[in-house]
Specification:
The chain is of the alpha+beta class and 498 residues long. It has helices at residues 3-17, 21-31, 36-40, 48-53, 59-67, 98-114, 177-193, 204-239, 245-298, 303-313, 376-387, 391-398, 402-409, 418-428, 432-435, 446-457, 461-467, 472-477, 485-494, and strands spanning 74-77, 88-91, 129-131, 138-144, 150-156, 175-176, 314-322, 331-338, 342-348, 358-360, 363-364.
Amino acid sequence: MSEADVVQMIYRLTTEQHMSTIKIADYLNALGLPTKYTIDGRKIAKGKRKENTSGQWLPGRIRNMLVQTTYKGIHGYGKRSKKEREIIEREVPAIVPENIWEQAQMVLKDNQLECIRCAKHKYLLRSLVKCSLCGLNFSGTRFKGSKGQPTPYYVCNGKTTYRGKYMGKCPAKNVSADWLDEKVWDDCVDFINNPGKLLDGLSPEESSNNVSTEHELLLIASSLSQKDSEKQSILVLYRKQLITNKDVEDQLSKIINEKTTLEAQQKELKNALNATTDEVNRKKDVIMILDDLKQKISGEVTWEIKRDIIKQLVRNVTVYTTHSEDRDDPIVKLSVKFVFSQDVPRTDKRAWNNLDEIVVHRTINQGTEITIGNTPSERIRWARMQKGWMIKTLAAMAGITPTSLSHIENKFGASIEITPLRKLSAALEQPVWFLGCFDSMPEDTFFQRLKKARCYHGHTKVEMAKRIVVNKRIIFNWKQKEPGQVTKEKVELYWEIL
């Protein structure tokens, strides 16, 4: 087995089997695969610990290999330098595809969230609860209860760290973890058993429409084939001098117009039929998923099973805290957002933390208007919904994995790399600057304006350097000093897009 085969196997174990770095290291050691040090015959000269672990696969080394961009074809020169300098990127032969590399990053992040280590309490909604006031996540912690026993709560990170809108003073109310976990789990079970209008099958009218559409497509195909025969017949008559040049020109013009009309109708019908087929397949997938979840909750339900089901069904839980002058205790409203476009709002009716008196309203919000938003994730989701596409459809059109696209749409406020953003721009027929929210970038200095122009073009640093015909290393120096007049004229042509 070559070194490249080992690298591909590590990525395959990560993406397909979701193995942790510890399990992968144990597996490679059990197989007896040698490390690079063993192959080269290098030995550790100092340190008992290093001597004892030399020649073994370690989780840290596995993790470093998984995050190394060189394996996906991008080598960064200068990243190990202790001095502050620009990282120079260059393309190298890739060992794993870019989509597999991106998927591995998702698995690493997911494994990090699911690794509870030495936690004294398991929180069912770990990483899913968000604050509506500061936008940060809620994390689990424990306080002493009425009887002195530790009681778990979800606490906004804006109250414990100097981040977010309120800088360590977020007024969000703490939420009882046991209560919230129980209520959300009950909603999930209720949703699995009673999905409502989500799984309404195709009506007989829709099915008959599909049949008539297919029949019409057959007629159009037959007519198109006849147009070619008609064209040949006219040419035969012309060769026999039975018709004039003007007759040939008129008849061929009519055939071309009729053929154009038929092809346009054929394309429209195919798009409509494909859209209906996608909807049917989506419903079949949802039915299959819900049937599988029903089987899981029919037997013994462990915490791990609950966590797995909640990860599949719940997109996020938003905590809305409202303070009132006529009451000391704030009012808390919780909105549980399901993956299948379903919201469950909950309201704390009492002012003394009695969370048992709850009124639950279940609604299907499939027709809710989606705003454009001011973050890349919000704008990409808005553009996708304008097309009426599912995540799988857009992922196939853009050439990325559905998992990567889902991660992109849930990157709240985070920036997105240029390469996938450019693919999404082409698929969604939206400019790169719009999807990336580059219109809000500053352009006060020469370097800031150049950076904004690069983002507007959708270029990487290497591509920008090639476009303006300069060395990539020189561009980094323009932060402190602007270039000469000749180069500046090239740059000014480049940022005309602004």
